[in-house]
Amino acid sequence: MKRHSTSRFNVIASPYAVWAALFIIAPLIFVVYYSFTDASGAFTTENVSALSKYLPTFLRSIWFGIVATLICLVIAYPTAYLISQKTENIQRTMVLLVMLPMWMSFLIRTYSWMAILEDENGIINGFLASLGLPRVHMINTSFAVILGMVYNFLPYMIMPIYSVMAKLDRSMVEAAQDLGGSRLTVIRRCIIPMSMPGVVSGITMVFVPSVSTFYISQKLGGGAFDLIGDVIERQFQQSYNYNLGAALSLVLMVLILISMAVMNRFTGDEEGMAI
Amino acid sequence: MKIGSRIYLFLVFFFLYAPILVLLIFSFNASNSTSVFAGVSLQWYRRLLHDSATLQAFRNTLVLAVSSSVLATVLGTAAAVGIDKMKKGPAKTGLLATTNIPMMNPEIVTGISMMLLFVFVGRLIHMDAVLGFGTLLIAHVTFNLPYVILTVLPKLRQTDPNLAEAAQDLGCRPVSAFFKVVLPSIMPGILTGLIMAFTLSLDDFIISYFTSGPGFQTLPIAIFAMTKKRVKPDMYALSALIFVSILVLLLLYNFMQRKSDERARRKEK
User: Fold this and answer.
1) Which residues of chain B have a CB within 8 Å of the CB of A28?
2) What is the dihedral of CA A109, A112, A116, A117, to 10 degrees?
3) Cβ separation of B34 and A20 shorter than 8 Å?
């Protein structure tokens, strides 16, 4: 008697299959449907052709996203490496400290940056003034927007890189050292290649929310640096042009899919994410 | 080198905690400024206790987080068990790929895609205010499900399929064999998924922003409405309270884990 039966489809998964069809697949079909219809439901390509007007916004979003992701990578990589070198108990505490800010509303943390960066009453400028130094204009600049992105998404870069580094085979590193590799050579030839899966997953985890953000740019950019997320948000919460909003989202989605495919090809990562 | 690395780590952590430090300090501010400190006072905390709208939003957030995480855990565990038993094929691949969609898609796209579905269906059934607790619950369960499934699946792969068979050989029915043998061994995965779903739901703003209506506000949405105006330190007081409670919870969790590690180590000896 064969009890351990496997089949193509298992009934126990069917409630989820129905749920996924209704609330994951169907909403995406609606994005496509709304992109190619007008308010009355008639077919139109007007929304898609209106997109060229938003090309500068798209380019700015991608540019800011790339810069923020690179800065995160540069800050996070040494951080993850240094944490992975500590004793187990210290590692655990530090990981906790990295994750703790993520559990606080990002709205409030971003708002708090406004208080730090402000011109007149800002904390940094107040400090500079008390030292008799000239004030620095920071709020409502592209610097502030990118700072907000780096701040909010840095833990998403540290965590995956750290989890790969913590699992790195120590004996490989020791073998490289035994074979005469200097500290730098070991890092370059051994640690960096082995930590690639973490880097790839960190890049996606920072790039996707940076490109699509809408709150950070409004608060720290003062509305002068519209990102694609801001435009989409306005279509749904202010001007109620769902069709244009859907078309913008569709392009954003396709854009992110393409950039991820390019990155996976570029890094030659076969195993995919290492979360 | 040692000192250099210490300074580096200190600077990174300082960067991560600077805004939190600022809001902790200014939550005790005597004036209503969020950047000029005028002396210590507890007035914003006192005011918070009497702010019925914020307290209601907090209750709503808890209700939503508990119900959506429990629902997602039940649905997701069943899904993981089913997927684990499936043979390789288009059904399994398709189901796994679909599970990845909400994790890969930008949150704003997930949010507006569900909003479009809800609005469309609402128009079909001639319901004007379709967005509310129901739609929020559906949205939260949907973005929680992948996290539950992807934490339970690896645990299922680790459990020995012979265990369930052995239980059946010893006279267990298949269903009770599952509850007595398989379920306990995947329990850690289920709990991790539940906790993850709960915290994600608690903190979610973007997806909730597009799928909620004026009738049911969660805390992040209430905070968003507040930050549109000039913010007073009452919001800082609120976040300070949230921060301290999360800190205590995490320290407790950390402490318990350390204890259980020590116990495991002693057993090994």
Assistant:
1) 101, 113
2) 80
3) no
Domain ranges of chain A: 54-267
CB contacts, 8 Å: A16 with chain B? 75-76, 78-79, 82, 95, 145, 149
Structure tokens belonging to residue B260: 């259980």
Task: Take residue B58 and report the two structure tokens written for it.
Answer: 């907090």
Number of domains within chain B: 1
Look up the CATH number of domain A54-267.
Answer: 1.10.3720.10
Q: Yes or no: say if B155 and B191 are a contact pair by the CB < 8 Å rule.
A: no
Establish if B267 belongs to a structural domain. no
pTM to 2 decimal places: 0.89
- How far apart are the C-alpha atoms of A82 and A71, rounded to whole Å? 17
pLDDT tens digits for range B234-245? 888 888 888 888
For the residues A179-201, what does the mean pLDDT come to?
86
Q: How far is CA B261 from the centre of its chain?
A: 25
Position B148, amino acid: V
**CB distance A115–B168 less than 8 Å?**
no
Has residue B112 been placed in a domain?
yes
- Cβ within 8 Å of residue A8, ≥6 positions away: B86, B87, B89, B91, B92
| B29-37: Cβ within 8 A, 24+ apart | B29/B233, B32/B232, B32/B233, B33/A121, B33/B233, B34/A112, B34/A115, B34/B231, B34/B232, B34/B233, B34/B236, B35/A115, B35/A118, B35/A121, B35/A122, B35/A123, B35/A126, B36/A121, B36/A126
Residue-number span of the structural domain to which B149 is assigned: 53-229
CATH number of B174's domain: 1.10.3720.10
Question: Contact, B44 vs B233, CB < 8 A?
Answer: yes
Residue B169 forms part of a structural domain: yes
Residue of B nearest to A115 (CA): B35
Confidence of residue A273 (pLDDT cuts 50, 70, 90): very low
CA distance B213 to B264: 49
**What does the pLDDT look like over B69-88, one tens digit per residue?**
999 999 999 999 999 988 88
The alpha carbons of chain B give a radius of gyration, in whole angstroms, of: 23
pLDDT, mean over chain B = 89
Q: What is the spatial distance between Cα B87 and Cα B207, in angstroms, rounded to a whole number?
A: 34
φ, ψ of residue B130 to 5 degrees: the values are -80, -30
> Is A256 touching B (CB cutoff 8 A)?
yes
Among B18, B105, B106, select the one facing A116 at the smallest CB separation. B18
Contact status, residue A76 vs residue A101, Cβ threshold 8 Å: no
Residue B1 pLDDT level (bands cut at 50, 70, 90)? low
* Within a domain: B236: no
A255: left (phi over 0), alpha (psi -120 to 50) or beta: alpha
Question: CB-based contact (8 Å) between A265 and chain B?
Answer: no
